[in-house]
Write a structure and sequence with these properties.
- This protein is of the alpha/beta class and about 725 residues long.
- Helices cover about 35% and strands about 20% of the residues.
- It has 19 helices and 27 strands.
- Strands 14, 18, 19, 20, 21, 23, 24, 25, 26 and 27 form a ten-stranded mixed beta sheet that branches. Strands 10, 11, 12, 13, 15, 16, 17 and 22 form an eight-stranded mixed beta sheet that branches.
- A hairpin with a 7-residue loop joins strand 5 and strand 6.
- Helix 1 runs antiparallel to helix 2 and helix 1 runs parallel beside helix 3.
- The N terminus and C terminus are likely disordered.
């Protein structure tokens, strides 16, 4: 396995101009992301969603906030503590941003817990799912709780006193702890003894009360069980208060790759050190003693202003387990089965199908199975000589990794480009890297200083006297599980012009390539940023000349200042621009004199919008690219990304008419940005019903699947 990344000479990002005096022409990145998380919270409030799905959306809000604090807020705190002030795209200092973030998050968390108490809990109770709290347990429930504590909880708890003889404990990131306030009944003066009870991650956080056949079904959070029984941990003392809390820590990896001889070992070491990251947030149940709270903040070296007092159960992300443990189909979205590809089903092998014509799959509406079968068939096919694969995130029991191992064991040359620094998947990817290496796979890590984020697979197959290259290019990860939850695109092709450039890309990743030339693919950090600017500028020129000009760009995030400036210039020239951006976007849309021709919308629905599609009218000869890259400095200049062209006329039509135009019609799951900065639901046209693009895609996929499986009537 190669532990050395090849050096590259990527293009440098252009210098960002200082924003003009007064209001910035750019939206703040962090506030834009927080606005996205509010749109997720809207889904939890929406009574049209099934009840357990609403609880799940509430969990996602918490999970999103965790990552936001671990990475974005942690980074801003480091900037604020450094001597060099870094100004955001909209001209704010790190301290300005932090102040606004904590204010916005405090409001959001208040709304989140209001949703829990006033919407979710009453609706769950009405559905026969009741949550019990420590103060409202009846006699039978108390008996159950105490037995559960004695047999399942108390044996693994270790209370840790905090005083002159006991140092403050090292509290791991995002773990459940309880702050216990004790005093001695015989003491002459009231005491404030402080004890922390860490709760192991191995214990379930939501516990059902009573037998499963009981109705209504009752549940209790683990923290409530410990509150009821905590006195048994401190015989002879009086418990004055018990409050659950958790600490969020800086979880980003800081590794100088050029100084690290063995990247894999260094990352393993850094993962072990993450638990010692600086605290960036404290969440604690409301009502804790003020002095003990101040002591807690002091030991954590955290400003009390960075703490959130919660009116309800700690860490609502744990509601995800409730969704999984309750088998109530009527409280969840109706099951959806992705459609099989008619093109692939009509051929004996995936290679024959691809030779016949390019295949475009829209996941999760089209099954991800063909992508897995493509790699599995390549592993088994005696005519396949080599497989090259990028792996950024994949599932824990990945059939794709198993296929690569099988291919290597069968004597094929297999190369896996494993990105060890895929955030929060580092440990999983280290595991796969070791297993692949043990099977004889050539495992490499790519280019120094660049994450390999592109989604590519190359298969070399002998066919007669020639070697033919088959390629899969995607917008999403090689993960069959998330492929059922994320919207993405896959292209299967053997077009030589594209396949040759994918081969060149792999040679650059595994070998040495200072300035590879790409003409069909847009590859970061080499030509992606420049070509995007050229394509936008071309639309500007077409509009100025009176030719058809339009841009439709769908992505996850848009924050690159130079690209935003290009879009503003195109808007000023009369180019109609539709942006479909799920999360962070620094564009101010619909502002007179700046962006009147730009419309920005975000779709948050049942599936996570993850696909990147870029459409340019090109004077009447549309150009379409799909791929892995958002329009962000990191994607343009600090990652290896690939956008691939969609040239087949029928596939172009499908993307434009069946996908993009329907997403622009969406007035149910979509929210549109107003010039005021507010996102609102698009108005309902007269005499029309609400339209959801995701529901439309599911319905059409079901029709395709039904047509494919319908028996053919015998001829007369």
């Amino acid at each position: 396995m190669s532990a050395t990344r090849a050096r590259s000479t990527p293009s440098s990002p252009p210098a960002a101009e200082s924003p003009p005096a007064g209001k910035s022409i750019y939206a703040n990145r962090e506030q834009s992301w927080l606005a996205f998380n509010r749109r997720v919270l809207e889904q939890a409030r929406n009574p049209a969603n099934p009840l357990l799905e609403r609880a799940k959306f509430l969990a996602i809000v918490s999970s999103n906030l965790d990552e936001f604090f671990e990475i974005r807020v942690a980074g801003l705190m480091q900037q604020a503590d450094s001597e060099t002030a870094v100004v955001s795209i909209d001209g704010l200092t790190p301290r300005d941003q932090l102040r606004r973030i904590y204010q916005s998050v405090a409001t959001m968390v208040g709304e989140q817990y209001a949703c829990w108490h006033t919407n979710i809990v009453p609706a769950l109770a009405e559905a026969g799912i009741r949550f019990r709290t420590a103060g409202k347990l009846d006699e039978a429930e108390q008996k159950f709780v105490r037995h559960y504590f004695d047999t399942q909880v108390m044996p693994v708890l270790t209370p840790l006193a905090v005083d002159q003889a006991h140092p403050f404990p090292q509290l791991a990131n995002k773990t459940l702890n309880l702050l216990v306030h004790l005093d001695h009944p015989a003491a002459e003066e009231p005491e404030k003894l402080m004890v922390i009870v860490p709760v192991p991650r191995s214990l379930p956080r939501i516990i059902p009360i009573g037998p499963p056949e009981e109705h209504p079904r009752r549940y209790v959070f683990l923290s409530e069980i410990i509150k009821v029984c905590v006195a048994s941990l401190f015989p002879g003392y009086r418990v004055k208060g018990t409050h659950a809390f958790r600490v969020t820590r800086n979880s980003d990896l800081y590794i100088d790759e050029e100084e690290s001889e063995n990247l894999l070992k260094r990352i393993e070491q850094e993962l072990r050190n993450l638990r010692r990251g600086a605290a960036v947030r404290l969440e604690i149940e409301d009502g804790a003693d003020a002095d003990l709270f101040a002591t807690l903040c002091r030991h954590l070296e955290l400003d009390p202003a960075h703490a959130f007092r919660l009116n309800g159960p700690l860490n609502l992300a744990r509601l995800m387990s409730l969704y999984e443990m309750i088998d109530r189909p009527e409280l969840k979205f109706s099951p959806f089965t992705p459609a099989d590809s008619a093109t692939l089903s009509a051929h004996a092998s995936v290679f024959a199908a691809i030779r016949d014509r390019e295949v475009l799959l829209h996941h999760p509406y089209d099954s991800f199975a063909p992508v897995v079968h493509f790699i599995e068939q390549a592993a088994r096919d005696p005519h396949v000589l080599a497989i090259k694969q990028t792996l950024y995130r994949t599932s824990g029991d990945s059939p794709i990794v198993r296929a690569l191992i099988d291919a290597s064991m069968a004597g094929k040359q297999v190369t896996a480009m494993v990105e060890l620094m895929a955030r929060f998947d580092e440990a999983n990817n280290i595991k796969w890297a070791r297993e692949l290496e043990e099977a004889g796979v050539h495992v490499v890590y790519g280019l120094v200083g660049l994450k390999t984020h592109c989604k590519c697979c190359l298969v070399v197959r002998r066919e007669g006297e020639t070697l033919r290259r088959y390629v899969h290019l995607g917008t999403g990860n090689y993960n069959p599980k998330t492929a059922r939850l994320y919207t993405d695109f896959s292209l299967l092709t053997c077009r030589e012009a594209v396949a040759a450039e994918v081969a060149q890309l792999f040679n650059t990743l595994t070998g040495l390539g200072r300035s590879p030339g790409f003409h069909h693919l847009l590859v970061a950090p080499f030509n992606l940023h420049g070509r995007i600017q050229e394509l936008i500028a071309a639309e500007t020129a077409h509009a100025a000349a009176g030719r058809p000009a339009r841009i439709i760009a769908k992505m996850n995030k848009l924050v690159d200042a130079s690209t935003i400036d290009s879009l503003y210039a195109a808007s000023g020239a009369g180019v109609k621009i539709d942006l479909i951006v799920r999360a962070t976007c620094c564009v101010r849309a619909g502002v007179k004199g700046l962006s009147e021709n730009i419309r920005l919308r975000s779709i948050v629905g049942r599936f996570l919008e993850h696909a990147r599609i870029f459409y340019f009218e090109n004077g009447g000869s549309p150009v379409i690219f799909c791929g892995s890259a958002d329009w962000m400095p990191r994607n343009f200049f600090r990652r290896v990304e690939v956008l691939f062209p969609v040239d087949d006329p029928e596939l172009k039509r499908r993307i434009i008419e069946e996908v993009l135009l329907n997403e622009l019609r969406d007035n149910e799951d979509a929210r549109e940005l107003q010039a005021s900065g507010e996102f609102i639901q698009p108005p309902l046209p007269a005499k029309e019903e609400r339209f959801s693009a995701q529901r439309f895609f599911m319905a059409t996929a079901s029709l395709r699947q039904a047509a494919a499986t319908r028996p053919v009537a015998p001829s007369a």
